[in-house]
Design brief:
Elements: H1 10-22, E1 26-34, H2 40-50, E2 57-60, E3 70-73, E4 81-82, H3 92-100, E5 112-118, E6 124-131, H4 137-148, H5 165-178, H6 180-196, H7 198-204, E7 220-221, E8 225-231, H8 232-241, H9 246-260, E9 270-277, E10 289-296, H10 306-317, H11 319-327, H12 338-343, H13 345-349, E11 355-362, E12 377-384, E13 387-388, H14 389-394, E14 398-406, E15 409-417, H15 425-438, E16 443-445
Parallel strand pairs: 4-5, 9-11, 11-14
Antiparallel strand pairs: 1-6, 1-12, 2-3, 5-6, 7-13, 8-15, 8-16, 9-10, 14-15
Helix pairs in contact: 2-4, 9-10, 9-15
InterPro entries: CAT-like_dom_sf
Protein name: Diacylglycerol O-acyltransferase
């Protein structure tokens, strides 16, 4: 198989340098809950297969300042992290939360890991956690599907330390020279972006985070998160009765949650931020995506989704122009110093109080089978790592809704941090249940 390009794509370089500048970054998590016996040997095969696919890599730094870094081969941890003692089924979400606190690093490793918690009632909770620098949601989903089917994908990256320092300096200097046209275009795009978003930039720059060194010894927190399951047939019926689609029902729920949590603008609208995948066959980028922002009036979303559907359609049709504005400056990522990256964090999060949304849609069956059999329940989440209450408050709090459909269920997870509180799981669950009830959706909570 020919060797693929090992230089990080600009967007992946930006993700990695942002992680280094802030000392924290998003983690993608899959969690499976088995209520029947788990084949641990099959889970170990699943983990080994993951190391021979899109997850089979980590970042190796360039010795040349401002050059892009490289991917090198990394097969993953030597074994699954298997808990020695069983825990009650009711503590599965606690187990998933605890695993998020174990360090993940796309450079030093592990850039991802698999952990298994046996349950006293039988079965087990299994989780896969990965740095967003190594894979976006769709890349992780694709890697899981391939690994569960027993498929491997040898990316052809070199082993760590394969280049001498002199060789690395020469190759990366040549790569930097070749990038000059990209950098020139990115400067033009950045000037246009700044001119078009002057107010948003002015209002968001002040929300920058502290230096990573200030996180050492700080009281880290995990953003409260809850998961709920809705029968797929009921979801389908409800979206049709509201005149919507699965995406618009998901967006309507996000808008109503934004209203309940006070994340509205002066006109009462909720800003939903969606990633939009650009992943193609054979795509080895870790983050092959752009984004779009929807402005939704939450007043009537529980009775009709037609306006939400129209807003989705309008944004998708305008995506090419929005993509240029969002990704045009990305070639400047290797040139941004850490201090500036921290000041720009607020801008990257968007103006006001957006609601983050990620809908993976209907998943392939193997995604729900890390041991070769269907898990009874699936949880998908994106959670910020190594953060503090002070940082979350400075950023205006957070609200993130994620969803996936598999095995006859729609799995929904909601993570929230309110500035000044309250920030308890019980209150979050009550608010989420209230919103789902307004949509006349019957949910089972994890």
């Amino acid at each position: 198989m020919p060797v693929v390009e090992s230089t990080l794509a600009y967007i992946d370089q930006g993700s990695f340098l942002g992680l280094r500048a802030l000392g924290r970054g998003p983690l993608a998590q899959y969690g499976w809950i088995y209520e029947h016996p788990v084949d641990l040997d099959a889970v170990r095969r699943f983990q080994r297969n993951l190391g021979h696919g899109l997850l089979g890599r980590r970042v190796e730094r360039s010795p040349l300042p401002f050059a892009r870094d490289r991917w090198v081969t990394w097969r993953g941890p030597a074994d699954i992290d298997l808990a020695a003692t069983a825990r009650p089924r009711s503590e599965a979400m606690d187990f998933f939360d605890e695993q998020l606190r174990i360090p993940i690093d796309p450079e030093a490793g592990p850039s991802w890991r698999v952990a298994v918690q046996p349950l006293t009632e039988g079965g087990a909770a299994i989780t896969l956690i990965a740095s967003h620098t190594v894979c976006d949601g769709l890349a992780l989903t694709q890697a899981i599907s391939q690994a569960a089917r027993g498929e491997t994908w040898e990316l052809g990256y070199p082993p760590p330390g394969a280049r001498t320092r002199g060789q690395a300096l020469r190759e990366d200097a040549a790569q930097l020279l070749r990038a000059i046209p990209d950098i020139a275009k990115a400067i033009v795009a950045a000037i246009k972006l700044a001119a078009n978003n002057a107010r948003d930039i002015a209002s968001s720059v002040g929300r920058s985070g502290p230096s990573p060194t200030k996180l050492d010894g700080a009281a880290l927190v995990t953003v409260p998160s809850v998961a709920a399951y809705v029968d797929e047939a009921q979801w389908q019926s409800r979206m049709e009765s509201l005149g919507g689609t699965s995406n618009s029902l998901f967006a309507g729920i996000g808008a109503k949650l934004g209203q309940v949590f006070g994340r509205v603008d002066d006109g009462g609208l909720v800003r939903l931020q969606f990633p939009v995948s650009e992943r193609t066959d054979g795509d080895t980028r870790a983050n092959a995506l752009t984004g779009m922002a929807l402005m939704i009036d939450p007043a009537n979303v529980t009775t009709s989704l037609r306006d939400v559907r129209a807003e989705l359609k309008r944004n998708l049709s305008a995506l090419s122009e929005a993509r240029f504005e969002l990704l045009g400056p990305v070639a400047l990522a290797p040139l941004v110093p850490p201090g500036l990256a921290r000041r720009l964090e607020g801008m990257a999060l968007g103006a006001g109080a957006p609601v983050g949304c990620s809908n993976l849609g209907k998943l392939d069956g193997p995604v729900n089978r890390p041991d070769g059999t269907d898990a009874e329940y699936l949880v998908v989440r994106q959670i910020e790592s190594r953060t503090t209450a002070e940082i979350l408050d400075r950023l205006g709090g957070t609200l993130f809704l994620a969803s996936a459909q598999v095995n006859g269920k729609v799995s929904l997870s909601l993570a929230s941090w309110r500035v000044g509180g309250p920030n308890s799981k019980d209150q979050l669950k009550a608010a989420f249940a209230q919103v789902l009830d307004e949509f006349r959706l019957t949910a089972t909570f994890e």
